[in-house]
Amino acid sequence: MELMVRTSGSSPRPCRRFGDDPCGTLKQDRFRKSQGSRPSLGRLVLSSVTHRILLIEDDEKLGRQILDQLREAGFEPSWIRQGDEALAVRARDHDLVILDLMLPGAFGLDVLKRLRSQSDLPVVVLSAKSDTAVKVRALELGADDYVTKPFWPEELLARVSARLRRPGLERGGTIELGGLAIDVPARAVTAHGTPVELTRVEFDLLLALARRPGQALSRAWICEHVLDPERDGSERTLDVHVSRLRKKLGRLGGLVATVWGVGYRLTATEEP
Which end of the chain offers a freer environment for a tag, N or C, measured as fewer CB atoms within 10 Å? Predict the structure, then answer.
């Protein structure tokens, strides 16, 4: 598909989408239209939290284009080209997966099933197959979205951002949210797969927030249900615990957001 785009002071020039070019060799400037006609990539960045995106795509040139777009939008992408390598992926090491269905060494739907058996990690399927039956099957197996090639790069980034804004679900006793994994039975926390050592109060505080993602919890409620009233259940002590928790979570500490005049909440993305 080819669109004719006219910019100020120039004659019409072709503009293509990702996947239109049979060779996959699309230059960055082919996606530029006149100012205000399409969303800028900068406006699609979620927050200062760097989300780790795994791209599973065997097309060399298309894969490089997608990686460049993800980096420009502020994400931290990695790339796998082989299906057998994709089957060995650990879901906990990533915040979202972009998955092509046609892979050498494995079928993309088998990779999807493997990922879904581990976690509710968001998976955006990327495929040239527009057959409704294939789309339905992918969604039935747990895909969160399905993007058909060819596509505008801004559309893919917008879909990725939308999925990352949704809180994670609890599976097998583990809550996953914005790069955090909270193993409730084991009372263990990882941030992007790295263990985080928390005190009893810090863990209980994080768990209380994670079980109500996006919901503001008042300082009074947290003090009553998390802190030890026999020792020091004051709101000032709570603020100290929150500060220490944020430091231990590192770059994910911003997920613990302050709600001024109310208390705290845990979000899937860091709030400004």
Answer: C
Report the greatest alpha carbon distance in the chain. 76
Residues comprising the chain, all counted: 272
Structure tokens at 222: 């947290």
Specify whether the CB–CB gap between 111 and 56 falls below 8 A: yes
Per-residue pLDDT at 82 exceeds 80: yes
- Give whole-number Cα distances, 67 to 52, 78, 105, in Å: 12, 8, 22
A 10 A CB-CB count for 30 gives: 14
Angstrom distance (rounded) from CA 179 to CA 177? 6
The answer to whether the beta carbons of residues 94 and 54 sit under 8 Å apart is yes
Angle at the Cα of 151 from the Cα atoms of 150 and 156, rounded to 5 degrees: 140
Residue type, 71: R
Give residue-wise pLDDT tens across range 183-231.
988 899 999 989 999 998 999 999 889 888 888 888 888 888 888 766 6
Which residues does residue 155 pair with via DSSP β-bridges, in sequence order?
none
Evaluate whether 89 touches 54 at the Cβ level (below 8 Å). yes
CA distance 164 to 76: 13
The pLDDT of residue 18: 58
Cα separation, 225 vs 203, in Å, equals 13
Strands (E), the chain: 3-5, 13-15, 52-56, 76-80, 96-100, 102-103, 106-107, 123-127, 145-148, 170-171, 174-177, 180-183, 188-191, 194-196, 217-218, 256-259, 263-266
